[in-house]
Design a protein that fits this description.
By secondary structure, the chain is mainly beta. It has two helices and 19 strands.
């Protein structure tokens, strides 16, 4: 989407504080992983940790601390934001500005998406292929730029000398559909990709896959399925992870945003526990041409965050 050029827009962001690196990419690309330094504490039940789904946000957001004992999605306008600016030229590059100040995590960075679109070697965060990689100081970003009105991807904040990730986030941002331009009748199906990061208590790995989302504009709700596979940072598939599904996520009145609950419909050897949590998202483009969102889930020692995007 950065190649199309735009001014300031809202974004969708999820932040995950983690002690090991990881990530994902757009449909089919490789993702990063690596051994976790030790088994984290079991996270609390997702429902109690996340509370009721909320659309009271500047951008849909969530945060998790290093051991997984704190998992929450934002329900205000200021604790986490992600905004884009610029027209994607050398003189006026497209910039993604990330701000996190929640649950003990503080992070501020501006990523130059235009510079990331140029050829450069793999960051070591992802294996490459099918998405764009960039670096900003010690921080890294990977995103899918194939949509017309929105982007989604993964950023990683590295502050340790050994490159250990201190925070990892996922985002989906774009040209928000004006509330008055949201369809009021009919349905629409969106297909695209999904990316994320997961840990099962002993290892952290990237998630890549596909998304299939259906909006019922007449009843103002959204449902979807995310099919995810785990990969390491060399692009090797580690096997199926989970399939996540959500339904009846409510579109807020006079808004392009929606929120609801999400849960696994399948388990795997990597994640034998059922997981559940919340999903938040938004519609992008002049008339809800595209959709993007984020999720945060937990179950047993498993925790994961991710983003998805798609077009009609």
């Amino acid at each position: 989407m950065t190649g199309k050029g735009r001014l300031v827009s809202l974004a969708v962001l999820t932040a995950l504080a983690a002690c090991s690196s990881g990530g994902g990419g757009s449909p089919g690309p490789a993702a990063s992983g690596g051994a976790a330094p030790g088994a984290p504490a079991a996270p609390p039940a997702a429902g109690s940790a996340l509370g009721a789904p909320s659309t009271n946000f500047q951008a849909p957001t969530a945060v998790m601390n290093a051991d997984g004992s704190t998992l929450a999605m934002a329900n205000d306008q200021t604790s986490m934001t992600a905004t884009e600016s610029g027209s994607n030229t050398q003189a006026d590059p497209a910039l993604l500005t990330v701000h996190v100040a929640s649950n003990g995590i503080a992070f501020d960075q501006t990523f130059n998406l235009t510079a990331a679109e140029g050829p450069h070697p793999a960051t070591g965060f992802f294996a490459g292929g099918g998405f764009i990689q960039g670096v900003q100081g010690a921080d890294k970003i990977v995103f899918d730029d194939s949509l017309s009105f929105s982007d989604y991807g993964v950023w990683q904040h590295n502050v340790a000398a050994d490159g250990t990730a201190q925070a990892t986030g996922v985002f989906a941002s774009g040209q928000d559909t004006p509330a008055g331009a949201m369809p009021t009748t009919g349905t629409a199906t969106y297909t695209g990709g999904a990316v994320g990061l997961a840990t099962n208590g002993t290892a952290t790995f990237g998630l890549v896959g596909t998304s299939n989302v259906t909006a019922d504009f007449g009843n103002r709700n959204v449902s979807g399925t995310l099919t995810l596979t785990a990969q390491d940072n060399t692009g090797n598939a580690l096997g199926a992870w989970n399939t996540l599904a959500f339904s009846n996520a409510a579109i807020a009145p006079a808004s392009n945003k929606f929120a609801g609950t999400i849960a696994s419909t399948s388990n795997s050897a990597l994640t034998p526990n059922a997981v559940s949590g919340n999903v938040q998202g938004a519609f992008f483009g002049p008339t809800a041409n595209e959709v993007g969102g984020v999720f945060a889930v937990a179950g047993g020692t498993t925790r994961a965050v991710g983003a998805f995007g798609g077009h009609q």
